[in-house]
Amino acid sequence: MEFIDTGIKRTESAKLFEAAKQYFPGGVNSPVRAFKSVSGPPLFIKKGNGSRITDEDDNTYLDFCCSWGPLILGHNHASIREYVLKTVENGLSFGTPNRLGNELGKLILENNSYIEKIRFVSSGTEAVMSAIRLARGVTGKSKIIKFEGCYHGHVDSLLVKAGSGLATFGVSTSAGIPESFAKETLVLPLNDPNLLEETLQNYAKDIACIIIEPVPANNGLLIQDRSFLELLRKKCDEYGVLLIFDEVISGFRVGFEGAAGYYNIQPDIITYGKIIGGGMPVGAYAANSKIMSNIAPEGPVYQAGTLSANPVAMAAGYAALQETLKPGFYESLENKTSSFTKNIEDFCLQKGYDLTIPHIGSIFWLAFTKERITSADQINPASMEQFKLLHHELLQRGVYLGPSGYEVGFVSAAHQDSDLEEAAAKIKEALVVVFDGKK
Ligand SMILES: *Cc1c(COP(=O)(O)O)cnc(C)c1O
């Protein structure tokens, strides 16, 4: 495929991408990496340090993708690197319990009052899949409710969108998912209390759980009112349905206790991923002891993993989470993020550009609108063309955003004020090109 000449050299990345296409479907091992929604070949990154990444052509970028969220301390953080290297010296995995698993488990449970027991797995998808099985096992019911605009990994029953009509049974969004699986999922719009009530009235006797990203951050950033999340809690109790918070992004991101702590709402089961592994493949699901006692070998819900809680992954997670527990860690991140977004928003206001930057904690999203957006259907697909141009202009200037306008950005602890000022200046320049067409 031809790509627009970006000015910055992408020769090596382009060559590597051509080679990768011979090995991997679409040249990638995860679809959004393929740069389908933005221009040019994907960047092949060879190293990262602090807030910056360097590609195979030796271009350096201020990074706001941060490996899609895990890197809350930025790239190549010394304490994670050192702890991982020290652990690796004793071997990578034993398939037995190990001390580091205990240490990470203890660290998390002692500092999170919303959970009592945890099970480590190796990805966010695996965490969600297991949490759903647990909810079904506990309730003896099979249907689940999810919300349009929330992503929960590539679990069969969650790659589902609303069919036609009100409170509909889902239709799969991927080939290879039997219709009978998709039908077990009901898909509702976010922030619609009436439809929620109606659906529960009709189907609660069959519904095991409601799963939500309490901070929906995979399809834009659809920050919910606390009252909607509270309503979910109340209705779940009323109808005997379990509430799952999928905190694979929000966990350890909007605070150590994630969105449960941020909103002070007690879900029944919480899933984690991304930050919990400090950059290594780790996921987890957690709940109170009673619910977790249903998991094998204690209880009848089976779930296992060859590499679960391997010491190297545990070491990375432990080193990362220890840093986040330092006093003021989250306040500082949140403050940096809000002054960064305000800086850009003020400029847009002054220029009359239709761009706002919803943000929470250290998550932000560039929304090409002035409206507050709380549900997926409010996003104008046409605005993705503006994002595409913005992405292109930012690559030229050395700023890397995730390669889709539906993706959020992350500020890490490694992003210094000076980095954020530099990024804001470059984003403003790029926005002038997007809105006024000046080069
Ligand atoms: C990333 C993500 C997942 C999937 O995690 P993987 O580690 O990519 O499998 C699930 N839920 C949410 C909310 C996520 O952001």
How many discrete structural domains? 2
From the helix content, strand content and strand pairing, which structural class follows? Answer: alpha/beta
Strand count: 16
Q: Which runs of at least 5 residues are low in confidence (pLDDT < 50)?
A: none
| Helix percentage range | 25-40%
Q: Strands of the largest sheet, in order across it?
A: 4-12-11-10-9-5-8
Cα separation of the termini: 25 Å
Question: Over the alpha carbons, how many angstroms does the gyration radius reach?
Answer: 22 Å
CATH class of the largest domain: Alpha Beta
Count of individual helical segments: 13
Bound ligands, named by name, code or SMILES:
pyridoxal-5'-phosphate
CATH architecture of the largest domain: 3-Layer(aba) Sandwich
Give a short account of the largest sheet: 7 strands, mixed
Average pLDDT rating? 96
Beta-sheet strand percentage? 5-15%
CATH topology-level name of the largest domain: Aspartate Aminotransferase, domain 2
Give the H and E element order: HEEEHHEHEEEHEHEHEHEEHHHEEHEEH
Globular, elongated, flat, extended or rod-shaped: what is the shape?
globular
CATH superfamily annotation of the largest domain: Type I PLP-dependent aspartate aminotransferase-like (Major domain)
